[in-house]
Design brief:
With 396 residues, this protein is of the alpha/beta class. It has two domains: 39-86 and 130-286, P-loop containing nucleotide triphosphate hydrolases (Rossmann fold, 3-Layer(aba) Sandwich); 291-373, Magnesium chelatase subunit I, C-Terminal domain (Helicase, Ruva Protein, domain 3, Orthogonal Bundle). It has helices spanning 8-17, 46-57, 74-79, 99-104, 112-119, 141-145, 150-154, 164-167, 183-195, 228-231, 246-261, 263-287, 295-308, 314-329, 337-348, 354-379, 389-395; strands spanning 64-67, 87-91, 125-129, 132-134, 172-176, 197-202, 205-210, 214-219, 236-239, 292-293, 334-335. The strands form four sheets. Strands 4-5-8-1-9 form a five-stranded parallel sheet. Strand 6 and strand 7 (205-210) form a beta hairpin. Helix 11 crosses helix 12 (263-287) and helix 14 crosses helix 15 (337-348). The N and C termini lie far apart (155 Å).
């Protein structure tokens, strides 16, 4: 027969004295913490690492394209930049108002709320770490530029969600297998990277977003060529080959296995050096506006571009901006011809087109033929005009 509980006090005492089964542990949701392979632990590949570092120091370089076969560490190197990314000032305003808008213009250049904050001495920006955003290969155009909010549509409302390009503003956008992207997505990236903004139209709704990002891409040339339009948008072009020395390949194997077996411990070994280089990159980025090119460096760079017969003016931009970034990374405020020599291969390769060369060659032959005909016609004596009977009678 069960024990009878007569009062509420008895019930409370009875329940308090019982031992209950402990709550089960929370369900494993399968989430993983992103742990990047340390940038400083990458073996070899000096040009690839230098190109990525320069793009962090100077966004005006125009990004980086890594070209090479599978398994050469292209994606690993890009993802390892997470711990090196600098801080950037982001606007606190949804309209992107910045203090320089007021200093270079007036209070009409910002929204009324930001004008009031600026007048009261409140900051218009906050400091935030630059982020690395990856563009999935299976992305739709709505994912890239933005589309209608499906949740809002269920409530009979219309609203545009920001796309990946808008979220990449003042960040780094990484596109793996960039040569396999759909044409409409490539066109959207081209427009956004060229203008720094892009517009979205969805029915009666329209919005314009800022998209000032550093573009980094990687590709395997075995899987297809890259459209010339987007190739021209990449400032630095690095050909990534496999490690040739057996000692380096063995070291790369040992480090990769150590990272897989104990990633936190492996990252900890490089933590101090990683933070040190991040601070140095931050300082270099802030001092970059003070770096000037010497006249010798300018003449040397222009002569190289002229002898290579490169048509695109982006060659000068990338070459000179890379030289400035290399100089400040070396602690100098003057970029010399030595800096031009150091960055020239990665800035000038793959800028000549055999099609364009053949096109201009055929046009040159045509122009020569036209000039020859014009010259021959000019030298021929003109025949005198014969007077008609009518003109003779008129004279009489």
């Amino acid at each position: 027969m069960s024990e009878t509980i007569h009062t509420l006090t008895d019930l409370l005492e009875k329940v308090s004295s019982q031992r209950f089964i402990k709550a089960p542990p929370p369900e494993d949701l399968g989430l993983a913490e992103p742990l990047a392979f340390p940038f400083l632990s990458i073996v070899g590949q000096q040009e690839m690492k230098l190109a990525l570092i320069l793009s962090l120091i100077n966004p005006n370089i125009g990004g980086v394209l890594l070209i090479g076969p599978r398994g050469t560490g292209k994606t690993t190197a890009v993802r390892s930049l997470i711990d090196l990314l600098p801080d950037v000032l982001r606007s606190r305003c949804p309209y992107g108002c910045l203090p320089e808008d007021i200093t270079t213009g007036d209070f009409d250049a910002v929204c009324p709320d930001c004008a009031q904050r600026f007048g009261q001495g409140e900051p218009l920006t906050i400091s935030d770490r630059v982020r690395l955003l990856e563009l999935p290969l299976n992305s739709r155009i709505e994912d890239v530029v933005g589309g209608l909010d499906e949740r809002a549509a269920l409530h009979k409302r219309m609203r545009i969600n920001r796309g990946i390009l808008a979220r990449a503003d003042r960040n780094i956008l990484y596109v793996d297998e960039v040569n396999l992207l759909a044409d409409d997505i490539v066109d959207a990236i081209l427009d956004a990277s060229a203008q720094g903004t892009y517009s979205v139209h969805r029915g009666p709704l329209a919005a314009t977003y800022r998209a000032r990002f550093v573009l980094i891409g990687s590709m395997n040339p075995e899987e297809g060529h890259l459209r010339p339009q987007i190739l021209d948008r990449f400032g630095l072009r690095v050909v990534v080959k496999g490690l040739e020395r057996k000692k380096e390949r063995l070291e790369a194997y040992q480090r990769s296995i150590a990272f897989v077996n104990s990633p936190r411990q492996f990252i900890k070994e490089y933590c101090e050096a990683t933070e040190l280089i991040r601070q140095e990159l931050e300082a270099s980025r802030k001092s970059l506006p003070e770096v000037k090119l010497t006249s010798q460096a300018e003449n040397f760079g222009l002569k190289m571009i002229q002898e290579l017969k490169i048509d695109s003016l982006r060659a000068e931009i990338t070459l000179f901006e890379s030289a400035r970034a290399y100089a400040i990374a070396d602690g100098r405020l003057r970029a010399t011809p030595k800096d031009i020599r150091k960055v020239a291969p990665m800035t000038l390769r793959l800028r000549r087109s055999e099609f364009i060369k053949a096109f201009f060659s055929s046009r040159a032959e045509e122009e020569e033929e036209i000039d020859r005909i014009l010259t021959s016609l000019k030298r021929r004596p003109s025949k005198p005009k014969r007077k008609t009977n009518k003109s003779k009678r008129s004279a009489a």
